[in-house]
Design goal:
The chain is built from three helices and four strands; from the N terminus they run αααββββ. The protein is an alpha+beta fold. The protein folds into two domains: 59 residues; 100 residues, no CATH class. Strands 1-2-3-4 form a four-stranded antiparallel beta sheet, with helices on one face. 9% of the residues are buried.
Length: 167
C-alpha cells in the first residue's frame, strides 16, 4: 500500500513538473516574441525620429532664431535678435486692432464687414517677415519688410501679397 502511495505521489509530482516546465517554456517564448516585436518597433521609431528631425531642420531653415547671420546683423547694432522677435510679432498682432475697414498693412478689404487680421507671423531673417491673414472667409499671405530706425522704432513695409480666390 505504501508503495502505491509513493508511486502515485511520484507520478503526480512528475506531472506537476512537466506541467510547470511546459508552462514556463510557453511564457519564455511569449516574452521573447514580445521582446523581438518591441525591438522592431524601436527601430521603426528611431527611423521616424530621424525623419522628423530632418523635416524640422528643413522647416526651420528660414527662421530668425536659426539664422546666425541675421542675429549677427542685430548684434552689430547692439540689439538682441532673439528678444526682438516677440516684440516684432506683438507689433504686427497689435495692428489687428484697428478702426474702420482698412488694415494698416494689409492692402485688401475684408468681406461682409469683417476685418482682415494676421493669423500667424514668421520672421525669416533680419529684414523679412512672412505672414498669413484672414477674415474667416478669405485669406492670403504677404511678405513684409521690417527695420529699426535710430530711435529703435519698428517700421513695416508690405513688399508683396496675395489673396487666395474663393472656391
Amino acid at each position: 500500500m505504501k508503495n502505491r502511495i509513493f508511486m502515485y505521489l511520484f507520478i503526480f509530482t512528475l506531472l506537476l513538473v512537466v506541467f510547470q516546465f511546459m508552462n514556463s517554456k510557453k511564457i519564455i517564448e511569449d516574452y521573447d516574441k514580445n521582446l523581438l516585436r518591441a525591438e522592431a518597433d524601436v527601430e521603426v521609431y528611431k527611423d521616424s525620429i530621424a525623419n522628423l528631425t530632418m523635416q524640422l531642420d528643413d522647416f526651420s531653415a528660414f527662421n530668425l532664431s536659426k539664422s546666425q547671420d541675421a542675429l549677427n546683423y542685430f548684434d552689430r547694432d547692439g540689439v538682441d535678435g532673439i528678444r526682438l522677435e516677440p516684440i516684432v510679432k506683438d507689433a504686427l498682432y497689435s495692428m489687428n486692432e484697428y478702426d474702420g475697414t482698412d488694415h494698416p498693412l494689409i492692402p485688401y478689404a475684408g468681406t461682409g464687414g469683417k476685418k482682415l487680421v494676421f493669423n500667424s507671423i514668421r520672421l525669416l531673417n533680419h529684414k523679412w517677415i512672412i505672414a498669413d491673414f484672414s477674415d474667416g472667409t478669405v485669406w492670403g499671405e504677404m511678405l513684409i519688410s521690417y527695420s529699426l530706425d535710430k530711435n529703435d522704432d519698428l517700421r513695416f513695409k508690405a513688399l508683396d501679397q496675395l489673396l487666395y480666390p474663393l472656391d
